[in-house]
Write the structure tokens for this entry.
Amino acid sequence: MRQFTLTQLLMAVWLVAIGLTFLRAEGCGQRFTMVGCLAFSPDGKHLAVARYDAHDARTPMKCYKANVCRTVSVLDVTTGSTERIVEQDLRRGNKGPAFGLWWLGRNSIGFGATSKALLVQQFGGGEVRLYNRDSEKWRRPFAGNNQHSMNMAISADGTILATGHWDGAALWDVASGEKLQLIATQASPFLGGPLLVISADNKMLATADYASVRLWNVTDGSRRDAAPELSDPRESEALAFSPVGQTIAVACRGGLHVYDLENSQNTELLSGMWVSRIAFSPDGKTVAAAHDDGVRLIDVATGQTLGDISCEGSVSSIGYSPDGELIAVGDHSGDLTLYDAATRRHVRTLAVAGRTRHSWTLSAVALLVWLFVCYRIWVRRNRLPDRRTTSPGQPE
């Protein structure tokens, strides 16, 4: 049997490592990642997270993403470990469907009435399915679901599902999967579907697009007259209903507005700041607003700033735990960080499962170095003269 030297074994291991690196490589250009949306389970023990990974499509004069992948996973809040990867969907290419897959503010996951039921919307828009965490099986899609559904929202008790489409919004019964109402919200076709949120008492549905914010009755789908008026309605980014009372918060590129629907009062909590994501505390007294520099906690009654949470990257998703003790913040690094809501201190960072890919450049350089080292070893073993060490007087 042929005996291999230590050098040969190390070279073989190096070659295998380079080969594996090439398999995980994916083109050239900058890599992008973000935690698109998150949801706490009703018992507060688990987190459902949708992470997005892509790379620069290298399209001249356009900011396109290519090979966009969404990974839906369930994390354990206490240990920070990944309990299960529910789904991983990759859309290759840099044209057509890949253009609209990287939209901030789209919600595609959420828990039902129990922590066992997880609702997941099809990647890129489409049907909503229910995943049972115990049996690890999918229930058939909701009957008659619109294939152009681009956004979703779930009521606080997990019994009603709202989906946003190009032609409006639809309300569904989560237990039976039957359609309750179909509402023509006149959504913007470019947005793909309105932003959605259901009130805590399940009586109102709020929708927002580039045109306005509208309120609808859940029972019959009729429009309510008392709709908030935005100072810049074309820039709405996120909606959130307070768990207590009839207060709705609207985030936009110009700030944060809170509307008391009972008293018809409009309060501007932030101005001159791009607010991308918002979340109310379970008691409705505090609203967390994500901006460029982190997360700001604001007292809803007084409008005073309670504190700020500094984040390393731009915030892409935010949410309170059911008991109000933790704030989960997802950013564009692909990680999820938990903070203490009272002290605003860092609790732990959760590594979110995703599709990690890198450029071919590093692999190509490693392969060239490996080939050069192999050549040097072959020269020494065969005792071939090296051109760089041959003197002019010596024959080549």
